[in-house]
Specification:
- This protein is an alpha/beta fold and 512 residues long.
- The protein has 19 helices and 22 strands.
- It has a domain of 315 residues: Trimethylamine methyltransferase-like (TIM Barrel), CATH 3.20.20.480.
- The strands form 7 sheets. A 7-stranded parallel β-sheet has the order 9-10-11-14-16-19-20. A 4-stranded mixed β-sheet has the order 8-7-22-21.
- Strand 21 and strand 22 form a beta hairpin.
- The radius of gyration is 24 Å and the shape is globular.
């Protein structure tokens, strides 16, 4: 047996127990914008916010903003003086926390620290092995949460699909929150159809946490939304949701998504400038109401295929503007978020792989704090694939390994190791350094095929989607966590219209 073959067998028999990567690795090595570019974009943003302003502020925001020195211009738009913008940015927290139900999932957000997870509100599912989509349902949210719970490189959870079968919007929001926290102990992002739904959902979360005080000691969920309608206008419902989400006592997540060539300038620099200006307008909205409140600033510039005007989530331009937007939010010292991983492919195929890898890698390398849309999404955010989610987990591990980079010092330069090997066996496979580093220097994907062609053929020539489907079934047929105490769950079901049947939440259900 060859040395290489023996090494492969050793790895298979003794799989790594540690990882070469972790949440919060510092990024920022990739900078699509120069320092001069940053300053020029910043100047344009200040001009936009002061002179063009934002249309349609909700009453509480308008009232609070005028008290802080804002003004209404001739077009009835709310304008933010440059000095006020800079003061609010300076007073907004730059370092925040996402707290999990389990402290091992706590995340320190800010600076150049990189985190990756899913996002989006798709209305379709691509089932394991399927070639057509179906409408997403409440059990899909629960399954996505359970699967995310076992994915080490997906650091937090956000509902990935909509429970399209639930017509009552309050019932939908309550059940979405329930299915999410029942399936994972990671920090969870929630969105709401109406601001009036925040308080009843919070009261359910208080019950699950063991009391209001306990929830606020460790708020394991946060709220937010998309409070801007591009170009440069506040949206009433989502603005109200974002302001109401202050009640969580956790950071408010705001996302703006102008589309270059449609609702933002076709010039990429202009698209970035407008997107960041709108994201800052969302930060300003929250902070004029509640000064100094933490906000995750989601500047998500989207891109059009100008041949058709359609959104394209998988282009090189999309990868570029997302990284640039993250760089600008980091320029302000604020917690950043971008949407990266929004492939246009309808299947977890080669197109999905290269589009996701390009966008996610650039966003992570730019130092984005929250690389969202990075797991599971297909069809330009129209569908979720659980197969894609587990494939993307491997992809995220590899991307994070590039973010970690190469540590260069006397020990890692390995001069003495080279000397010993050259004078000894002539290979490094059994060198103590090799054995010591295999668990900490190298990241090992769960699905990527590294067998020989012969071994692959002997296994039936499986492709990655087939292997991903097997892993999905293996996890979801066995991983039914009990994150809600049964006695508390009974109380929740007495007080709230929970539509996820208990019998679907255990191995005996036989769903997988």
């Amino acid at each position: 047996m060859s040395i290489v073959r023996r090494g492969r067998k050793a790895r298979q028999n003794n799989p790594p127990v540690a990882s070469a990567v972790r949440a919060g690795l510092p990024g920022g090595r990739y900078r699509p914008l120069t320092r001069a570019d940053e300053k020029q974009i910043h100047h344009t943003i200040l001009e936009v916010l002061e002179n063009i302003g934002m249309g349609d502020p909700i009453p509480v925001v308008k009232e609070c903003a005028l008290k802080r020195g804002c003004f209404i211009n001739d077009q009835e738009r709310l304008c933010f003086p440059k000095g006020l913008v800079e003061d609010i940015i300076a007073s907004a927290p730059g370092d925040i926390q996402f707290l999990g139900r389990d402290p091992k999932h706590d995340l320190e957000i800010g600076g150049p620290r990189v985190h990756t997870y899913g996002g989006g509100e798709a209305v379709n599912m691509l089932d394991v092995g399927a070639a057509t989509y179906r409408p997403s349902t409440l059990p899909d949210i629960y399954d996505a949460a359970r699967l995310t719970d076992r994915m080490e490189h997906i650091h937090a959870f956000s509902r990935l699909v909509v429970a399209t079968e639930i017509e009552n919007q309050l019932t939908c929001d309550i059940n979405t929150a329930y299915a999410s926290v029942a399936g994972t102990s990671k920090h969870t992002a929630l969105t709401f159809n109406d601001a009036a739904h925040v308080q009843p959902t919070l009261e359910m979360l208080y019950l699950i946490a063991g009391g209001e005080d306990k929830f606020h000691q460790r708020p394991f969920c946060h709220g937010g939304g998309c409070p801007v309608i591009s170009p440069l206008r506040y949206g009433k419902e989502n603005s109200e949701v974002c302001v109401e989400s202050i009640k969580f006592g956790a950071p408010v997540w705001v996302v703006v998504a102008p589309q270059a060539g449609a609702t933002a300038p076709a010039a990429l620099a202009g698209a970035v400038a407008q997107s960041v200006a709108e994201a800052l307008a969302a930060l300003l909205m929250v902070n004029v109401v509640e000064p100094g409140f933490p906000v995750i600033v989601g500047s998500w510039p989207f891109v059009s295929d100008l041949r058709t005007g359609a959104f394209t989530g998988g282009s090189g331009e999309e990868a570029l503007v997302s990284a640039a937007a993250a760089q600008m939010i980091n320029f302000y010292g604020l917690p950043s978020s971008v949407g990266a991983g929004m492939t246009d492919s309808k299947l977890p195929d080669y197109q999905a792989g290269y589009e996701k890898a390009l966008a996610i890698a650039l966003a992570a390398q730019s130092g984005c704090n929250n690389v969202s849309e990075s797991s599971g999404m297909l069809g330009g955010l129209m569908a979720l694939s659980l197969e894609s989610l587990v494939i993307d987990n491997d992809l995220l591990g590899s991307v994070l390994r590039t973010v970690r980079g190469i540590e260069v010092n006397e020990e890692t330069l390995s001069y003495k190791v080279m000397e010993q090997v050259v004078q000894g066996e002539g290979h490094y496979l059994r060198a103590p350094q090799t054995l010591d580093l295999m668990r900490t220097e190298y990241e090992y994907p769960a699905l990527m095929d590294r067998n020989t062609p012969g071994e692959w053929e002997a296994a039936g020539s499986p492709d990655i989607r087939r292997q991903a489907g097997e892993r999905v079934k293996s996890i979801l047929s066995s991983h039914y966590p009990k994150y809600i105490d049964p006695a508390i769950d009974a109380k929740v079901r007495e007080q709230y219209p929970i539509l996820l049947p208990r019998e679907m939440m255990g191995v005996a259900s036989g769903r997988w």
